Automatic annotation (TrEMBL):
This is Outer membrane protein OprJ. The lineage of its organism: Bacteria, Pseudomonadati, Pseudomonadota, Gammaproteobacteria, Pseudomonadales. Residues 291-318 form a coiled coil. Belongs to the outer membrane factor (OMF) (TC 1.B.17) family. It comes from the Bacteria. It comes from Stutzerimonas stutzeri (strain A1501).
Length: 377
């Protein structure tokens, strides 16, 4: 961009010429040394705005590169947020697993005592141990997953491996999503803004290529002194002023090819802008519909958990009353534990959908007041 801006202002160069010659004259050989230092001035008059269009194109491309950086920063922020949510989800799953392990260890102790005293068969004891081991083997698996997730998060934040300070999944408050979102929010998306800037830059570049068919006016001037050792008088002051008009007559269709290339690039930029806009609408719609679907799943899963908790209480009462074996209680415990884990994963999915919506809207659903003004400028 500085290069194109410099072409809009005059150029001033220092020049120096040195010449040595030898001629045969009436008096014999004559050697002459001539030196000519000076300054040269040149300026192209931008009558049709060709150079200004090039400068505007460069400025727009620079702004587009900044928008691309914002896109990368937004994607990184979303990735870090989703990684943090995944870490909290693993913490919650580990907590539930520890609670289940303690519960099944107690159930196993009861089953072993009852089997030893002959109140129940060995089948109930082996089934209780199987359920205990099934829950216990999840603990090291989740602990390893937590460790790897911590390292992944610290790698994203350019930190060495180590623990990540954090809260709990239950403490996260999901923001409320408005019932309707204006499409103007999509103008916050840096990738859409980047495509818009690239389209505008391609328009300016196409204008500059078309202006090459028009005549160009160039001004030039020079000022200097001529030093000749064979002359006895002082150095001679030399100067010149000039103007020229250059109009293309034949260039092997180079100008036509330049316009064709610029037109193709402009059409490609227009297609990229349309594709970016459609992709933005699609991502927002997917995030919103996903949130609605997960909310309905959450209500069903919550109802199932309440039913299973009641079922477990009934199974334990029946077992203690001698009306059923402990296998019914173990089955109810297993179903309740699986449902609790599913609820945690569903909450993680809901938070991830909110993060996706945040990214799809370019940074949330509350547009900055200055956003519209900046885009208009």
């Amino acid at each position: 961009m500085p290069y194109l801006f410099a072409r809009l202002i005059p150029s001033l160069d220092a020049v120096f010429g040195l010449e040595r010659s030898q001629d045969l004259g009436p008096l014999g050989l004559t050697r002459t040394t001539a030196a000519q230092p000076g300054l040269q001035f040149a300026y192209e008059v931008d009558l049709w705005g060709r150079l200004a269009s090039l400068r505007e194109a460069a400025e727009l491309q620079f702004q587009a590169s900044e928008a691309e950086q914002q896109t990368l920063r937004l994607a990184l922020a979303a990735t870090v947020a989703q990684g943090y949510v995944a870490l909290l989800s693993l913490d919650r799953q580990l907590l539930l697993t520890h609670e289940t392990v303690r519960s099944r260890r107690a159930a196993l102790a009861v089953a072993e005592d009852r089997s030893r005293m002959g109140y129940t068969s060995e089948l109930e004891q082996t089934q209780a141990r199987s359920e205990y081991e099934a829950a216990a083997q999840l603990v090291p698996q989740l602990e390893q997953a937590i460790l790897e997730q911590e390292h992944a998060l610290r790698r994203l934040t350019d930190d060495p491996p180590g623990p990540v300070p954090r809260g709990t999944l239950a403490a996260l408050q999901a923001p409320a999503v408005p019932g309707s979102l204006p499409s103007e929010l999509l103008r916050q998306r840096p990738d859409l803004y980047q495509a818009e800037l690239q389209l505008a830059a391609s328009d300016r570049f196409l204008d500059s290529e078309r202006d090459r068919f028009l005549p160009r006016v160039q001004l030039s001037a020079s000022l200097g002194r001529l030093y000749v050792d064979a002359l006895d008088y002082d150095p001679v002051k030399v100067w010149s002023l000039g103007a020229s008009v250059l109009a293309p007559l034949f260039d092997g269709e180079r100008l036509e090819a330049g316009v064709a290339v610029a037109t193709a690039e402009r059409n490609q930029a227009a297609y990229a802008y349309r594709r970016a806009a459609l992709n933005a609408f699609s991502e927002v719609e997917n995030a919103l519909s996903g949130l609605d679907s997960l909310a309905r799943q959450s209500r069903r899963l919550e109802a199932r958990r309440e039913v299973l908790a009641r079922s477990l209480a009934i199974a334990e009462d029946r077992y203690h009353g001698g009306y059923s074996s402990y296998l019914e209680a173990l089955d109810a415990q297993r179903n309740l534990f699986d449902t609790q884990l599913a609820e945690v994963r569903l909450q993680e999915a809901q938070l991830n959908r909110l993060i996706e919506l945040y990214r799809a809207l370019g940074g949330g659903w509350r547009a900055p007041e200055h956003a519209a003004t900046e885009r208009a400028e």
